[in-house]
Amino acid sequence: MRKTCNLAEVAEFFKSNDCFGILTHQFPDGDTLGSAYGLCSMLQQLGKKARVLVNGGRPPKKFAYLEQLAQPQDFNVENYVSVDVADAKLLGELDVYAEQVKLAIDHHNTHKPFAWVYYVNPLASNCENIVELAGELNVTITKDIADALYTGIATDTGCFRYTNTTSKTHTIAAQLMDCGCDAAKINKAMFETVSKNKKALESYVIGNMEYFCDDKIAVAHTTKDILKKFNIPEDEVEGISAIPRTIEGVLIGVTIRQKNDTTYKISVRTNEGIDASAICSQLGGGGHKAAAGCAVDGTLQQAKEAVLAVAKKYIEEQ
Ligand SMILES: [Mn+2]
Question: Are residues 40 and 84 in the same domain?
Answer without folding.
Answer: yes
